[in-house]
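Cont'd.
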Amino acid sequence: MAFWKSTAAIVKGMLTTLKHTARPAETVSYPEIKRPVAPKYRGRHRLHKTKVEVNGVDKEMERCIACHLCAAACPSQAIYVEAADNDPSNPTSPGERYAVHYEINMLRCIFCGYCEEACPVDAIKLGAEYELADSDRHALVYTKQMLLEPEKFAPKGQFHADVDGLHRDKKPVVYDVKLDPDHDLDTVYKTHAPLGSTLSQLADHSSSRELREASKELNAKGPTAGIPPEHRRG
Amino acid sequence: MGFLPVIGEGKSADKTGSPEWLLTRLVDWGRENSIWPASFGLACCAIEMMAAGGSKFDISRFGSELFRASPRQSDLMIVSGRVSQKMAPVLREVYDQMADPKWVIAMGDCAACGGIFNNYAVIQGVDRIVPVDMYVPGCPPRPEALIDGILKLKDRIREGQGRKHKGTYRDPRADSPVFFSELEKGGARDALRYEPKFDVDDTKK
């Protein structure tokens, strides 16, 4: 009796195997076929540009105003920003300052998207690229150039328009930041020169001029000027 | 089979058409298509590593299906997860027990540089204790990203770069977070120069 019972069990098991052999394979042939990433997927970052009208001429500028908010929000300290004052005659960004260095250490980055959330000017966005493996750890510190124009400067085989495009009707996504119509950038820039302000406005913006003058005055008085005596060190 | 590790190290190995070149190509081809990883899951990245081994992604398509339980039978160590100070000697021992030629993939941020765990308990990058051949960023990297890492490693082996041991230890200046501008400046980060607590010399065995 036990013999027939176990034989039936084997047949039953083999039938399951047989049933599954007829089914299409579950495997994704990865390098050839790339599974679409979720629309909310967070991969390699990208810094965006914007068009600003300067003296009636459209000028392409970097959105990043080097406010360091992304670096402050980053839980793994993967972002390094070095700021410099914009040249009023030829500004790099629409704000008061721009990023001279903007580096993201991809090995530190956990792709949480906090930088994206923190950014007041929507300069940094996380994309859909995930094929970042490299044999050199220094190559994984992405510079500003690589983040601004990854198609040109990121290591080969890392920009995948096909992956990006898959979840949007198989068309490559054009990285154009579309802001909400309600999202008023002027309010964002209210502490700085407003977006789209002319050059003379940019150079003469009150908050920056006042700050500059105040700091000049303090510097002239010496390093401890402006600090109450009880708070001074040494 | 003892002669296999020395193949490709002779003078005529890079001379196209020579018998040693032919043998080297053949051996490289064989090695490239049978990278057996060691079963060495450490943390959450291991879940993605298992997914890469499963039927959906199936790294056996590239000859890496056999996660070996013994380091003696494995060629590749996928360090998948953060390595604590306590685990570090174990990891190094497993690496030492693997037969040459051997490769290491630092999978995920924690293995590569400590990730968000910038504290005393976690080794800030596994390349401080073993030479790493491939870094796979992500937290954790999706299975495709790991497969991408393995494919890039395969390319290296095919080109002969994996023949002689080419993995790298950490540049002591490159303490995390490492940034080019700071490397150029030197200075501040040099203070964090790492000194290994135990022997990491490959030649002493």
